[in-house]
Amino acid sequence: MSTNEVDLLVVGTGAAGLTAAIAAADAGLQVLVVESTGKWGGTTAVSGGGLWMPVNPLMLRAGVKDSAGEALEYMEQAIGEAGPASSPERRRAFLDSGPEVVRLLGRLGVRWRRATHYPDYYPDRPGGKVGRGIEAAPFDSKKLGSWYATARAADGLPAPVMTNDVWLLARAWSTPAGFLRGAQFVFRTLGGLVTGKRLVGLGGALSCALMHIVLTQKTQVRLNSPLTELIVEDGAVVGAIVGGAPIRARKGVVLAAGGFAHNSEWRQKHHGIPGYSAAPEGDLGTAIEAGAKVGAALELMDDAWWGAGTEGPDGHNGFVLSERSMPFSLVVDATGKRFTNESASYIDFGHDLLSHPAPAWLVTDVRQARRYLSTAYLGKKKEFVAAGQLVEAPTLDELAGKIGIDPAALAATVERFNGFARAGVDQDFGRGRTVYDNYYGDPRVKPNPNLGPVERGPFRALRLVPGDLGTKGGLLTDADARVLREDGSVIAGLYAAGNTSASVMGRTYPGPGSTIGPAVVFGYRAARHAAGLGGA
């Protein structure tokens, strides 16, 4: 087939782009997928790989009650008023099409699994549930043949880890349930090796499963093919310049090339920091810029999928998740004071982190290091210590001195916190109050699984920065992922999904997979609209 002219041009190979390509090809369109870097998979490939999908078919088959009405009420409670990116129409479109795209991808080969125990991030609010998250089962990457050599997933964890594993593996040697899950993980890994499979999990499993469908559909994928500008005729987008050459697109162009996590100039302009992102290096905002140049409106550019991050000695930015919730730990800012619920949703934690004196430190006593798995500096403790990112000391006073905090201030904070830990109630920030907080806690620690006194040395302090999983702002789109101008009119022929678009989740993160879930849904809706199968 000629790739100088196609029905639909898809820019980006993360979950949004690959889903758009799959849905378009399934509808009979001729599709070309282009990727700016030499590796495909985008941020999806190095993520947890979960999708927040209310009312999904797996829930219903398991007898877990859910409804679009409950989910919409929950989104209204969790997100609130968030501007046009999270309009009522877009929220309803997300909920309406979630089950559809799950069924489509399942029919074409994705083996879905429920994250059964993973709660919504505000489970105590009306409409909140446990178990709305789904993920792809571990995928045999050998099915991709030579394509796996260019998979971004190949740079990640080469093991069949699943979201359902992570919360228990962190305490694999401290609780019976954790030990059992650790054993199951080992047997799953060995089973793959014995049968000649090369299993990958998490975001790698999802991106590989999606790419396998794309290749099975005979859709062409070009790597090292950056988009530089869109082609506009009579006010409509009819193609793009890719790799220096024009490509015509009869039905339109889907921009799904990620956000601007590694565009330090934009990060400084919009966020006031250079950025400490765990997203891949190709996340430069090129597609957002191309859309803006043809008149697209931008929304939520000042926000990101924030969380606690680390600056690794090798230049890689990590993401700190379960460590914040495990007992025998607390987080303090540069003044030595606590400033938030350490177990809160990572985006809430990140917002609070940005608004307090830097740097922040995760302070732990020896029991956290002995009982729980820390992925923040896994296998690189010496390097983190040498770089001053991880500090150790036999006493809290000495630790305070090493990290530049007033020892008296830290001692007072720890003393107050330890009183809460013994009583089981965090009177300052409510840590350990919800089932979400408890998810990464330790049920054997009483009376609160998230609270344990910080009192036994040696002590550690891990330096935290405002990290992220990608940026939240981008092109403003409607319910069918069509890109809009400032006046609300549609730019014909131009669609956007994933982190290239402003998030339907507004400024928060309602549940596990609130990035990839909408990315998949709006990639699907873009393709369906381009194919004339839905929407306005």
UniProtKB/TrEMBL annotation:
Instruction: Give the reaction(s) catalysed.
Output: a 3-oxosteroid + A = a 3-oxo-Delta(1)-steroid + AH2
Q: Keywords on this record?
A: FAD, Flavoprotein, Lipid metabolism, Oxidoreductase, Steroid metabolism
UniProt GO BP? steroid metabolic process
Which terms in the Gene Ontology molecular function aspect does this entry carry? 3-oxosteroid 1-dehydrogenase activity
Q: Which cofactor does it need?
A: FAD
> What EC number(s) would the UniProt record show?
1.3.99.4
Superkingdom is: Bacteria
> Does the record carry Flavoprotein as a key word?
yes
Q: What's a Pfam family in this record?
A: FAD_binding_2
Name the Gene3D superfamilies on file: FAD/NAD(P)-binding domain, Succinate dehydrogenase/fumarate reductase flavoprotein, catalytic domain
Question: May I ask which residue range the UniProt record assigns to the signal sequence?
Answer: none
User: What's the family?
Assistant: Belongs to the FAD-dependent oxidoreductase 2 family. 3-oxosteroid dehydrogenase subfamily.
This protein's name: 3-oxosteroid 1-dehydrogenase
From what organism does this protein derive? Nonomuraea soli
Q: What is the lineage of its organism?
A: Bacteria, Bacillati, Actinomycetota, Actinomycetes, Streptosporangiales
